Amino acid sequence: MNKLGKRMLYAGSCLALLGAGQAHAQARDSGEVGEVIVTGSRIKRTDIEGVGPATVIGSPEIAKSGIVTVEALLQRLPAAAGYAGNQGNAYWAARGWGTATVNLRGLGINRTLVLLNGRRLVNGGTGANSAPDLNTIPTSLIGRIEVLKDGASAIYGTDAIAGVVNIITRENFEGLEVGARYGVTDEGDGSDFTADLAYGVRSDRGGLAFAASYQKTQPVNLFSRAGCQLNGSSGSLICLGGGSTAGGRASLPTGQIINFTGGNTFAPYSAALHGFDGNIYLNAVSPIERLTTGVFGDYQVTDAIQLFGEFLYTHRETDQSASPGTLTNFVIPASNPTNPTGQQITLIQRRLVEAGSRIAFQETNTYQVTAGARGKFAEDWTWEAAANYGRTTGSDGFTNIANKANVANTINTAICSNAPGAAIPCADYLGPGDVSPAVLKYIMATTIDTGGNETINLSFDTTGSLFQLPAGPLQVAAGATYRKDKGWRNPDNLIVLGVANSNQQSPIRGAIEAVEGYAELSVPLLKDMPLVESLRFDGAIRYSDYKRFGSDVNYKAALDWSIAYGLRARATWGTAFRVPNVAELFSGVTQGQLTTTDPCSRYSTSTNATLRANCQAAGVPANYIQPNNAILTTTGGNLNLTPEEAETLTLGLVWEPEFVPGLSLTLDYFKIDIDNAIRSIPGSTKLSVCYNTPGLVHPFCTPQNFTRNSLTGEVNFLSSQQVNVGAESVKGIDAAGRYSFDLMDRRATLDAGVTYLKDYTIIPYPGGAPIIYRGHIGGGNGGYPKWRGLTTFTLDDPKWSASYTIQWIGKATDFNAAPTALGYQTPNVFYHNAQFSYRLLDEATVAFGVDNLFEEDAPYLPSYTDGNTDTMTYDLVGRRGYVRLTYKF
User: How far apart are CA 243 and CA 271, in angstroms?
Assistant: First the structure.
């Protein structure tokens, strides 16, 4: 699209007061849908409000948002926080490679259970992953998304500590719907094309629905949004590249650091002069091509028995551009003819710019098949038996990876040769542009890893009424499940052997197997009394037997009290647990260069006396400046992990005042305490906690956690492997309101929600000093601001619809930076999104929209992930517009 076309698109959208948003509201469908199984319970109910704090996003709200991916919809919710994967931060999703996930309460993607029609999905990614890919379901057949923001292990088993996301498909779909959407950024890049098709037929006995979605997105180069890597340690923001330089940064025997500048010249290393800017090689948005299909069917065999089936298939290809590879820590003797110093040197880091970008490529195939039967018997009893099998297979790899064994050969003058066509050419790594094409051909390789995930689930559930009590029927549900999750990953042989100049990995293979049974009851206690319109007790118990971890029992108890005058109170208490998943248990040790902030950089100018004393005691030179934003970090699984245990508490009020029709207000307090929590503590956090502890007595200060180069002072090893930490505790308040009213003979709806994070604390080991997450951001953790909000206003006319959404991300302070550092605190950030749709014909609708309408810039963070900010929290891309056409036959 040319500039004129883009401007017309934006102008038309803005004049129409467009809005892209997602309505998030408490479900109040009792007058629209009869009794159904809602998320968080196996007992049929008329609404979801009595179960716990919930958000329901219906298909009309999805359409009005203009969003085409499920993760973008969910990551706008105020209850989302922390670390999750999407196209803007795929580089950081370990082995996810573009897998879309959601992180409720910031507790981790592996503590948010994702379901499709109440059943588990297979994990997505390229092998041994921790969560399903949210985009394996065609959006055209999504009827609604229910988000239960409450622990539900007693109902669903492991993983449901932070909450449950249940994606529910449309029922009784008939006809043909086609749609196409095209979007582009204000800079003319990152074009996104999506096409959807849905077709359904029904008869008196059953029906069949088919859906397909195709998406292709072009990349957005990071350099166009962040022209250089910014650093504010000098008191002003300046471009300060990484210490892995194009010419090579080396240490002399005296400890002096030099940089090779070309030819036979070298100079004392200066980050300002020699630092490498890798942003031009990276993407702010990665390209993706995805085809998602689904088939859903049901057939009424008799009046009492129905058969049903589901089939999903998704093919995805994603690329992530990475900066050229780095050679690290190898010795070049004084006798080597390429060494102009006359001394033996240690080449600390040398960027192989001559080879160009590394391309991380990924390809996955995911399918899941479900078959089952359901029926009814006796008075109001129903049953369902189901089996599903899911499998994801994938491959990923890197181009332009150096073979370290071959690199060593090229500097061994006893075996290499400068003769044309030599089998082992001699290399000159000291100076930018000095590596010859012959050497590149000899040392460079493409690595290919393969892996996958698999799940088998068998379940039987039944629910109904046992007998009548004075206040109503006593309802129960019971069932049993069998589940087996398997994951595997086979790294390229060069990576396994450790000769590839990349993250060293070991093969992964393992399985988790469980048999479980549960019982649930709902007891009406009182009804039609003063200040007690109704009072109901809900309880559940679940027994789980894990082949690897033994047995466990979890409970849940809740009270739902309708007081009077539209006021309702609810309280839920429960226990929860989570067993370590395949990746956490069986992942081999992996080493890689991860963005990390060293608190000892420029420590001599710090006002923190403890920090200054500790850095000096550790032998860090007084003039030390961190030369590179990335530090070699070890991550991986841990076979010694044990299950997490948790307690959850929610207290809530719902008020629907009779004197204000259409108004609903909710207020919920939540508290989640996790013992024996499984977590990888980021390297930046470990370093910050260590050097801010008087006397360096914190366990994070041990050599098992990190070491420093005795000559240069820089961190040359850091561990972030999975461990059982002491405890995690999170508490806060959710508030939401929805008001529907008539405005100028049209229906208007104002929908607002806010989450206040009162506390998020990690105890790294029993008796250890707490690590505070609440109100902090960056360092690879994602964002935990105290406040998050989302407000949507919609106006509906029979011929058109307009909506306007404001997403609020509250202030936060950098996890690791000093209070005096630039960017230490981020401001409140507001993203404005707008959409306008118009019905051209009864069958055709066109919609225009703009996201990030006022082009809000992402704030600078000292301990950023990419693009000088936290890409897991903020939008780097800027303003973008789209147009969508939908036709129903």
Answer: 7
- 234-253 confidence digits (pLDDT tens): 788 888 888 889 999 999 99
Q: Which two tokens stand for residue 355?
A: 């080879």
Element (H, E) at 688: helix 683-691
| Chain center to CA of 780 | 12
pLDDT at 249: 94
Measured between alpha carbons, how far is 189 from 203 in angstroms, rounded to an integer?
46
**Count of alpha carbons within 13 angstroms of residue 673, beta-carbon side:** 5
List the beta bridge partners of residue 743.
746
CB atoms near residue 333 (< 10 Å)? 12
**Strand stretches in 40-191, DSSP E:** 44-45, 54-58, 112-116, 119-120, 142-148, 163-169, 175-185
DSSP codes, 471-489: TEEEEEEEEEEEEEEEEEE
- Which tokens hold the place of 476? 């129960």
Nearest Cα residue to 581 out of 168, 116, 120, 86: 120
Positive or negative, the Cα torsion across 526, 531, 534, 537?
Answer: negative
**Residue 426 CB neighbours (<10 A):** 21
Residue 543: how many other CB atoms lie within 10 Å: 14
Q: d(Cα 120, Cα 368) in Å, to the nearest integer?
A: 10
Residue 101: predicted pLDDT: 85
DSSP one-letter code for 42: S
Reduce the DSSP state of residue 521 to 3 states and report it.
Answer: strand
- The domain ranges of the chain are 3-11+19-181+190-224+285-300+307-322+363-401+449-589+636-682+720-888
Strand, helix or coil for residue 782:
coil
* Residue among 87, 124, 4 nearest 487 (CA): 124
What pLDDT does 339 receive?
A: 95
Give, to the nearest 10 degrees, the angle between helix 683-691 and helix 609-617: 100
Instruction: Please provide the DSSP assignment of 608-676 as one string.
Output: -HHHHHHHHHTT--TT-----SEEEEEE---TT---EEEEEEEEEEEE--TTSTTEEEEEEEEEEEEES
Q: For the chain, list residues with pLDDT below 50.
A: 1-33, 90-93
Is residue 568 a contact partner of residue 562, using CB atoms and an 8 Å limit? yes
pLDDT score recorded for residue 46: 63
CB count within 10 Å of CB 254 equals 7
- Separation between Cα atoms, residue 840 and residue 575, nearest integer Å: 53
Question: How high is the pLDDT of residue 818?
Answer: 84
Tell me whether strands 163-169 and 800-809 are parallel, antiparallel or unpaired.
unpaired
- One of 1.10.357.10, 2.40.170.20, 3.40.50.720, 1.10.10.10 is the CATH number of 3-11+19-181+190-224+285-300+307-322+363-401+449-589+636-682+720-888, namely 2.40.170.20
Q: Which of 703, 715, 621, 868 is nearest to 349 (CA)?
A: 715
Q: Which residues pair with 314 in a beta bridge?
A: 292, 366
Residue from 251, 249, 198 nearest 59 by CA: 198
Burial 657-667 (b: 16+ CB within 10 A, else e): eeeeeebbbbe
* Single-letter amino acid code for the residue at 44: K
Please count the other Cβ atoms lying within 10 Å of the Cβ belonging to residue 402.
23
Predicted TM-score (pTM) of this structure: 0.86
The amino acid occupying position 730 is V
CA 591 vs CA 453, 456, 712, 861: distances in Å: 23, 32, 21, 25
pLDDT of residue 836: 96
Taking residue 539's Cβ as centre, other Cβ atoms within 10 Å add up to: 15
Which helix (H) or strand (E) is 3 found in, with range? helix 3-15
H helices of 765-874, in order, are none
Question: What is residue 376's predicted lDDT score, i.e. its pLDDT?
Answer: 94
Predicted local confidence at residue 723, as pLDDT: 82
